[in-house]
Design a protein that fits this description.
alpha/beta; 16 strands; 412 residues
Length: 412
Amino acid sequence: MKIAVCIPTYEKRISVVEKILEREKNIINMADTEFFLYYSGEVTEEIENLKDTYSVNLECMELGMESNIKFFEIYKQMENSDFDYVWIIHDHTYFDEESYLKISEALENNYDFIVVNSQASIDRISEIATAEELCEGHIWRLNSIGNCIVKRGTFLWGIDWKMMEEKYLTPDSISYSHVGLYFERLSQLHNPRMGLIEISRDRFIDILRNEKYSWYPETVRICAESWVSVIDKIPSCYGEKFDLYKKQDQFFLSKCNLARLRRDGFYNTDIYNKYKKGLELMSPVSLEELYDLATLGFEELKTTCFGDLIDKANKCKSENKRIYIYGAGRHAAETAELIGDFSLDFDGFIVSDKEGNPENLAGKKVMEARKCLDEEGLLILVAVQSSSYDAVLQHINKCSGGRNMIIYNVYK
């Protein structure tokens, strides 16, 4: 099967893209694989050298083009190509040869649409039987570029682009327009075959995993307006819309993240009033606390909204009990940043498995949970994706031998 690997990027990311291509140079040279850089920016000697050094295709796109419009444009161009499959991936994520061979194996199953779970604990290929199963298990995963591969001859061929663009490339929906495209198109296909590729997360690495996500300043608009708008627009065959709203990772509109946004000037009374309906639908925080977070000064909201956390942390320290953050990704780094603003210290990060995680994060060691949960009364701030929360609680209970731990859920 012939596959096009498409990497949208821009001038400021060239050094990052070079690191990605260097790690993937063996894959680039594989038969039936072509890499495309979709580049927005001035075509400099640096980008030309990159193209020649790694033998990738260079496609220039309009400077400043909205990333989701770029996404649609790539698919439109690929519709008339001779590739069997098209995979659009981030410009800051790399994968190893073994994982790519697993993906190539999955393509032989002739799926029309493939979900890629690059954060799995095992390698596995399976079939997704129904649209409901796709939505229930994977709709939020598909918000991230790189998490799906589409078959050109069925999924892309014959799309009514005018309809798709008028429906989803609107100001209220554009940030998640690609999710709308996926589900709208799948509803048009007769019995589409859908597959799931699970790849061990130590083989898919996001170079920018611990940096602020690029749309941080617009978090409230994107989560409380765009996600809701796209879910409202996708066909009704995917089930109850209210259930689908809640598939969004709850960290983004959590108390912890809204406090950071308030501190940085990206959440205030005007934003609260403008997106109140969406916030009420999407956020795990009560309406009263949403208002407090929008109106109180940062120093005041520390005690009003986080007094329970500060009290628990101070009590642990007075009793010489350790405090850990569970997780070693972006959410964990952001949680560490916030509690630092509260003048709280902690003893390190713990994870289920060190494989694929950094040695250190934010100046603290990253350790396996099973080696740390050896006494009662430790305070654990759980800062992983909300979809993994229940599994983390089970792992904590297993590693602690049933000892009583103080759990703080950063999503609430």
